[in-house]
Structure formats: C-alpha cells, structure tokens
Amino acid sequence: MSSKPTIFFLGATGYVGGEILSLLNKSHLPPPAARSSSGSGSDSTTTNTDLGRYHVIALVRNVTPEREAALRRLYNSDDLEILEGTLDDGDIIRSAAERADVVVSCAVSIHGESTKWLTTRSKASGGASPPILVHVSGITIIADDANGEEVADVKEWSDLDLDITKLPPTSSHMNCEIPIAEAGTRSNYPIRTFVLYAGLYWATGVQRTSAWLGPWIKHAKDAGFSGTYGPGANALSHIHVRDVAAGVLTVLTAALKGEVKGGKGFNYFVATSKTEQREWAKVIGDVRLLCSNDSRRAHLEPYLLHQYLYSKRLIEEPGCRPWPEGIIRPKGTRAYWRVFGGNQIVHPDRLHALGWEPKETQKQGLLDILPQAIDVALQ
Ligand SMILES: NC(=O)c1ccc[n+]([C@@H]2O[C@H](COP(=O)([O-])OP(=O)(O)OC[C@H]3O[C@@H](n4cnc5c(N)ncnc54)[C@H](OP(=O)(O)O)[C@@H]3O)[C@@H](O)[C@H]2O)c1
C-alpha cells in the first residue's frame, strides 16, 4: 500500500472526471490535516519529490488495456491504482472510501446507493481529522418547473443563501444531497463534505464531449430540426468543463489547508451567465443566425463550410422550434424537463471568495464553443 495520502476517485473516465484527474496530476495539494500536523505519521517514508502527490484509486468499470492506458496518461502511472468495480458494488466502494483521506465523486450525481456507501462510516478514518468528500452535482437542484415557458420574476440564486435541506423534497438529486448533508453535520464519524453544483458544461475536453450533447443532436436528427423543451424561454447558467475542474481543485485545496470546514454552508455553484435554451438550440440549428453577429464571425468562419446540422444537411430546417413530445420525453418527465426546460441562473459567490474565476468560460463562451463541440460530437 502506498505511503502517500489517498484519493478515492469515482468517474475518472468521464467528461468532467478526466479534466479533474488531469488537473490533479499537475497540482500539488497540501497533505491531509492529520498527516501535516504530525509531521510524520504514515508519511514517514515520503520524500521531498512526493510532497503534494496523492495516490489515486480510481473506480473503473469495464476495464480494458485501452481504458487503463488512457487513465495512466492523465495521472502519473505510479500513483494511480485502478480498482475494477461499478457504482453498484457496495463492498468495494465502502472499503475504498473508508481507507481514503479524500473522496472525489463525479460519476453519477443521482446514484443514491453509491452516495450512501460513500457517506456511511462504521469507524473513524485512519487520521485524527475527518475525511473529505468532494461531490460534483448539478444546478438542476434549483431548477423551476417552467417547462421552457416564459416566467415572470425568475429567481437568481447565490450559493451564499443555499441550504440544501430547505429545498423542496421534490428537487432533483435529493437522494444524494440529503445523505451528503447528513454526513457533513452528524456528530458520529462526520465527513467534511463539499458539493459543487455545476451548470451544463459544453467544451470539448479530455473525453471530447459532454454526455448530453449527443442525445440532443440525435433528437434534432430524428425531428429534422433543432428543437427546444417547450418554447425554450427559460435560461441557464453554464460553464466550461475546465472551470468545473478548477473549481473542484480550488475547494479541495482550501479544504486541505483548513480554510473551509465542510458540511452545511459549504456548497458551491459552478456556473456563470445566463443563456436562453432557445439561443443555444438556434445555434445548433443554424449557424447563420449566429454569424449575423460580426464579432463572432471571425471565430466561426473556419467551421462554416462543414459544420452544423443544417449546413451538413443532417436536419431539414434551420433555426429551432419546440420539439414534439414524440421526440423527447413527455412533458412532466421531471429530470429531463428540469435539466433543459427549467430556469437555473446561479452566482458562484462562494467560489469567487476562494479566488476561483471562470477563466476558460471568459475566453470562450457557450455560444462560441458550441460549433466545435458539435463537430466533435458528430465524429
Ligand atoms: N455534463 C454536464 O453538463 C453536467 C452538468 C452538471 C452536472 N453533471 C453531473 O456530473 C456528473 C458527471 O458528468 P459527466 O458529464 O462527466 O458524465 P460522463 O461523461 O457520462 O461520466 C460519467 C462517469 O461515471 C462513470 N459511471 C457511470 N455509471 C457508472 C457505474 N454504474 N459504475 C461505475 N462508473 C460509472 C462513467 O464510467 P464509464 O466511462 O464506464 O461510462 C464515467 O467515468 C454526472 O452526475 C452529471 O449528472 C453533468
């Protein structure tokens, strides 16, 4: 077993997980509190060059030599252990979580069973300090039920006011949010919990494309046009995938330094700006609308000849209009309609307070990135 502190990582082969793992590899994290205060402890064999290095145990299903090699390119091979298993393997998850100083969970933010196993503890962790859990969730937790319709006085949320336990029980992800909130506040074997609620992320990353963009394009192809859930008048905050990864590292570093405690009040939005659903749907449908904006023309010019669904004749009409229910799930299918048809406008005030800035999103906004992201998703 490695003498280095340990991170148990769920979702390493995923879109955001790959970015987080890659950033972890380039980062030097402080040691867990119990180890740094003792000055030696189980780290007695650690050398100077090891400082800031963590041993990562990645839970991976369907391990193949190719998948393993891809992960070893992202994180220093000597410090990476592949643990074969799925989110349904309770014994594997419980045992790895119990051994870890830090758990990074960015696999499936609605997988209640695995979250329960990550957050239950039958004994105190090895060190004097409670272990840390950093969990990636989504801003859908605060989505309204606009179903794409215009709504008067749309609420804009700051994470400074966010108390998960006060959200309606019908909010998304509660099967995971509540056990995490409970683990962060209980007196017996508490865990220092930190949850980052990400907006939709789009940019092409290590894993090339966001999980939801492929199905969106498929709906457009099936319908013959780019569409919306309802009229598409709702707005969302969004974020570049690398800014989500940077947010995770910012919070984890602050947690390890003891600058943030964890538990109630340590929930972070990771998304900026607001974009109407029909704005991005229109870009997917018809680049020419976007190109009437001269400031974007130069950036998009290289894509004009071969990009986009309409210009590729993969769909029959430009622009966008509401999709019929035969194409998407029926209205009222909460998870789907909330993700795309709900208002989700957030302000990441807590992350800003830790010094995080959405640097990649500022360089390339959602509508700028979409052409490239669609092209990659089509390959
Ligand atoms: N994409 C977005 O815009 C967005 C926005 C906000 C929040 N989120 C949330 O963030 C999380 C990660 O999103 P993502 O876009 O990175 O998703 P993703 O690309 O689909 O990655 C999911 C990861 O979880 C793993 N996984 C899924 N089911 C598993 C199972 N049963 N057992 C073991 N591993 C499993 C996948 O492994 P395989 O490689 O084997 O499939 C992959 O590593 C999700 O919970 C999502 O709800 C996403």
Automatic annotation (TrEMBL):
<dbReference type="InterPro" id="IPR036291">
    <property type="entry name" value="NAD(P)-bd_dom_sf"/>
</dbReference>
<protein>
    <submittedName>
        <fullName>NAD(P)-binding protein</fullName>
    </submittedName>
</protein>
<dbReference type="GO" id="GO:0005737">
    <property type="term" value="C:cytoplasm"/>
</dbReference>
<dbReference type="InterPro" id="IPR051783">
    <property type="entry name" value="NAD(P)-dependent_oxidoreduct"/>
</dbReference>
<dbReference type="GO" id="GO:0004029">
    <property type="term" value="F:aldehyde dehydrogenase (NAD+) activity"/>
</dbReference>
